[in-house]
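Deliverable D4.2, example record:
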Amino acid sequence: CPGSIVQGVCGCCYTCASQRNESCGGTFGIYGTCDRGLRCVIRPPLNGDSLTEYEAGVCE
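Output generated by the structure prediction step:
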């Protein structure tokens, strides 16, 4: 892993943390968890819809 190791979505195994400009978020964090010092930024949809728990974000 280029960064930290984080607990996977299942809670029973580990995976590499998402790095800058990689995907993150989604239901239960299915798209990944950002590494230390980064945060998952989810941009609002361009069509004006509301955000839900299902959107993917990008680690910044």
